[in-house]
Design a protein that fits this description.
The protein has one domain: Alpha-Beta Plaits (2-Layer Sandwich). It contains 9 helices and 9 strands. Strands 2-3-1-5-6-8-7 form a 7-stranded mixed beta sheet, sandwiched between helices. Helix 1 packs antiparallel against helix 2 and helix 6 crosses helix 7. The protein is globular, with a radius of gyration of 18 Å.
Length: 261
């Protein structure tokens, strides 16, 4: 069976999803979710990771990032955050075995309108799960950081997020972002949309076809499909297989897993 699909192409925004092993609720306690965010902050400092949005749920994470600072920034960052989070959890709980369900999945997202829709989709994750009625009530997501910018321990690159979304300044983006989320809640547009989490690329037809060309031989057999609000490049999705064994995957060069494997 196929492993989780990740196809690295420089210069794009990526929506990354990563689930806990067997979808166990390993992040059910706030301290564990907070620890994942602390390691994400460390990745931002260490590798200059450009973070656009995030949410940590009880059994998986969503992360919107841009590849802007080198080929290996994103895979190194995810390796650091996922590896250290799992190691610490297993050591503290005296637990053995995988913390994560195989490798993470990455979807290339076109900037502008499609990025905005993906941003709101990430914000509404815990609303979709029925845990909260508004993303402001979930403290381990990027919505509150966008609406109430921090002065320290900043995760989100406010300037990059505004620019990639098509705004000249963060204040204009911030106001529009608040309206988009409220509009989605008012219109009950909170259902799961698999193009954000299962496709290889999502956006306009020209964007998706460009991604397919950039993938070259890897794209053989993969189809560009029309969706309600755009296009996507995808293939048949098989169940995840394998383990992200925190007892065996130390943060060492020989164990790094790159997107183009």
């Amino acid at each position: 069976m196929a492993r989780a699909k990740r196809h690295y192409i420089p210069g794009h925004v990526w929506h990354i999803t990563h689930r806990c092993h067997k979808r166990e609720f390993l992040f059910k306690f706030a301290k564990d979710r907070h620890r994942w965010l602390q390691w994400l902050y460390e990745a931002r400092k260490r590798y200059s990771l450009v973070i656009l949005n995030y949410v940590v749920t009880s059994n998986h994470i969503h992360l919107l990032v841009q590849n802007a600072n080198g080929r290996n920034v994103i895979p190194k960052s995810i390796q650091l955050v996922a590896g250290r989070t799992g190691q610490e959890f297993n050591n503290r709980k005296k637990r053995k075995g995988a913390f994560w369900e195989d490798r993470y999945h990455a979807t290339a997202i076109e900037t502008g309108e499609h990025l905005l829709r993906c941003l709101v989709y990430v914000d509404l994750n815990m609303v979709r799960a029925g845990v909260v009625s508004h993303p402001e009530h979930w403290s381990h997501g990027g919505y509150n950081e966008i609406q109430h910018p921090r002065r320290k321990n900043i995760l989100i690159d406010y300037e990059a997020l505004s620019r990639l979304s098509g705004f000249d300044n963060f204040e204009s983006f911030q106001s529009a972002h608040r309206r988009w989320v409220q509009s989605a809640l008012s219109d009950n547009e909170t259902k799961r949309v698999d193009c954000w989490t299962q496709s290889i690329a999502t956006g306009s037809q020209s964007f998706v076809e460009t991604v397919k060309r950039q993938m070259r031989s890897i794209a053989i057999g993969r189809r560009v499909r029309k969706k309600a609000e755009g296009f996507e490049l995808r293939e048949s999705q098989s169940p995840y297989k394998g383990f992200f064994d925190t007892q065996k995957s130390d943060i060492q060069g020989k164990n790094l897993w790159f997107w183009n494997e």
